[in-house]
Amino acid sequence: MVEEENSIVKPDNVELVIEALHSGSAERIQAVAEEVHPGDVEVAFERLDDAVRSEVLAKLPSDLLAEWADYLPAADVERRLSTLPRVEQREVLNSLSDDELVDLLQEMEEEDRPQFIELLPEDKRRVSEDLMRYPEETAGGRMTTAMATISEGLSVKAALGELEALREDAEILSRIFVIDSERRIKGIVRLRELAFSTWDTPVTELMNKDQMTIGAMEDQEEAAQMVARYDLMALPVVDEENRLIGVITHDDALEILEQENTEDMEKISGIGGDHGEQAYLQTSVFTHFKRRFGWVLVLAFLALISGWVMHAYEDVLTAYFVLAIYLPMVVAAGGNTGGQAATMVIRAMALGELDTREFRRVIWKEARVGILMGSLLAVCVVIQIQFLLPSRLIPESLSTFAVALVVGVSLVAQVFTSTLVGAMLPVGAKLARLDPAVVASPAITTLVDVSGCIIYFSIAQLVFH
Amino acid sequence: MVEEENSIVKPDNVELVIEALHSGSAERIQAVAEEVHPGDVEVAFERLDDAVRSEVLAKLPSDLLAEWADYLPAADVERRLSTLPRVEQREVLNSLSDDELVDLLQEMEEEDRPQFIELLPEDKRRVSEDLMRYPEETAGGRMTTAMATISEGLSVKAALGELEALREDAEILSRIFVIDSERRIKGIVRLRELAFSTWDTPVTELMNKDQMTIGAMEDQEEAAQMVARYDLMALPVVDEENRLIGVITHDDALEILEQENTEDMEKISGIGGDHGEQAYLQTSVFTHFKRRFGWVLVLAFLALISGWVMHAYEDVLTAYFVLAIYLPMVVAAGGNTGGQAATMVIRAMALGELDTREFRRVIWKEARVGILMGSLLAVCVVIQIQFLLPSRLIPESLSTFAVALVVGVSLVAQVFTSTLVGAMLPVGAKLARLDPAVVASPAITTLVDVSGCIIYFSIAQLVFH
What we know:
The structure is a homodimer. By secondary structure, chain A is mainly α. Chain A folds into 3 domains: 4-138, MgtE N-terminal fold; 142-249, CBS-domain, CATH 3.10.580.10; 303-464, SLC41 divalent cation transporters, integral membrane domain (Tetracycline Repressor, domain 2). Chain A is built from 22 helices and 6 strands. Chain A has helices spanning 11-23, 26-35, 38-47, 50-59, 62-68, 74-81, 86-95, 98-107, 113-117, 122-131, 139-142, 156-166, 191-195, 203-206, 220-229, 250-268, 285-312, 314-319, 322-350, 359-388, 400-431, 441-464, and strands spanning 147-151, 172-179, 185-190, 214-215, 234-238, 244-249. In chain A, the strands form 2 sheets. In chain A, strands 1-2-3 form a 3-stranded mixed β-sheet. In chain A, strands 4-5-6 form a 3-stranded mixed β-sheet. In chain A, α1 crosses α3 (38-47) and α8 packs across α10 (122-131). At the A-B interface, α3, α12, α13, α15 and α16 of A face α3, α12, α13, α15 and α16 of B.
């Protein structure tokens, strides 16, 4: 990856928006809005100072709010919306794509919903009430209902006729679902097939019968992974009776995966809670604090155990203080290798490359990697001790070799066990039906710090006495 | 995230494939192949034992290889391909989508390429030679040339006529690029617009003129991020003269982002090199070792510095051995908070939420988070010391308060500096035009281990003497 990668959007556009928003002049904002893509506005808002942001929001004309609503955090849209007159509220709500609309309704307090729902036209109201039955993180909670469907048994001409009505609303028109009177999927036909066939061809001859579907209550990430795995443009979502109720589109899938990836990375670093819709700069100091402090506190007190172990070996350490020099190395080597192993396994599971069935093979692989790393590391350190450790640091009662032996053996034992622990904990979490990523690597580090101290000092005691 | 999320594909299908492959019976494999999606085969191969895998590959009939080639790792395809007779090689190569074909050619040794390239039909040969001019990680290296284009100034009828020829080959037909004689993009028209307009409508009236394009030499991740940001179905890729040469499709974008996310997670955990196409179980122990050992070795020797610091404070530590109990806590608190801060900033940058311009605001936010966490942690620990630390552990010369003071102040200082370091290093890397994720959190941990020791012991010296 190269530096450029992070300047995702033509920065000039984002800059334009930021300047316009700072200026506060309605005309300039309006003018820029016509120039840029709402995606640029999204980035601009992520980079605004909180103060400026709420100021801008407070003055944002409703037509722009309507145009941008799909791209702004639901919380922001709601805040602005609640200050608008009813008629403008209606305008904004109607402009929202139905998945964003549901997102917005789910964001707000139970009691605020009705007043907004009653503003919706009959069809949008029914749709949003249907969608709200599904939790936010499920396929049903993320799907859009704006897909293209036609009844079965039509000719191409009739099919195009039915589709013409939908052409504006359908988010994805290139995949058309042929459904029966029960809304069960009979097949999928591509618009290109219709466009290039003679009008009297029966659609049945053109459609692809094997359907890939997902249940509305399944996890949204599973839906996204199916879209990725099977290169789908739209994955049909079905209810308990197997009736088509919506689709997860390719752009929904992208969004879901980015969100899940962020949460995994954060969990691995010991950051709790959901990432939420807010960007880094938009998130308050207190929220950042709340998400991080939990692990920090717990791990701090777990680290006391290492302290007690060190204290328990006071006589060994004070008698042979040279041990202090290599203590951090032995301990750290465990944390680093354990963390690596955990990340490898957690990611492989998230990508579906691994399942708990492969448990034994994972252990076997990591055991060998651990031995390899531990041994080679030990060799390097033993050489360092033999040739570079000033002999004045070594008590008369000890030989350089004895010190090298203790450090070397400890490193092998520590790296080996840490690698295994790092690989086993996520698989264990999975077996316990938890998210493998909850086994944050700081936790692994703290854990193997303890084992490292015990290994190191007990081996020293053994060799030196 | 719930447990189910990791059973990405209907496991029965994957199971079916695995069994069939294990059975080794050509008929069973053939039969299953007709049942399942190649995506299931991909997963099955990721989960096969290396032994079984190479055995299966060795016997894989060329028609199945042709069918699956787009979904198998290029290295595997090449291995099998090289053992096939020329005529079957040609069959397989022709079945590959051109981006996968280029991927395959780039995988193999320079000298092997010509013999395969000469098997290609004229057009595929020209295309692959064009594509190979672009490095693998660029937009040009990842694009497909199978997009739909029509010349400008056509009527809908004429346009559909031109498209009919492409309907089979075009990967994305729902976005059609209107180009001039120089292949410069004049606009984009959606198939639905053509399908539902009268035949004599000029395409110019239907097309959308503002074009979003990316240069062929830009980073592939930037292309993927644009697809995500702007909800694109296909992002046009242009050469130096701004001529349309290919597109990055929505499914390419998904693949790229997953790959880049994996690399970020690995970098953050101190795993080097590219993740490559191989799945976890497919990667050899030695490759795993090579990717992880570098950091482990470097950090082990960096940890020696902490060791020397401890050794330098021998008299303080031995005189007040109670310090040993809280040493690991002070040190670990720094590693954990620094790692959290680094992950937060690295991810925010990868998502484009942050740029180096926001440097000062990041520091200001993290400074406050650090102070908050450090202070609250210190309070908890001071209480623990005051009420739970057995007084027999405290030398006569010291008061419990003195100990509490040293530990508390050290924690605040350590957490504060570590949080700042964790946030500043990735931004620094970015300013140095490096990938922010190279600042692996193990490196930060090792770094703040040193500062932690120094802070802790120097404060102790100050207070106790």
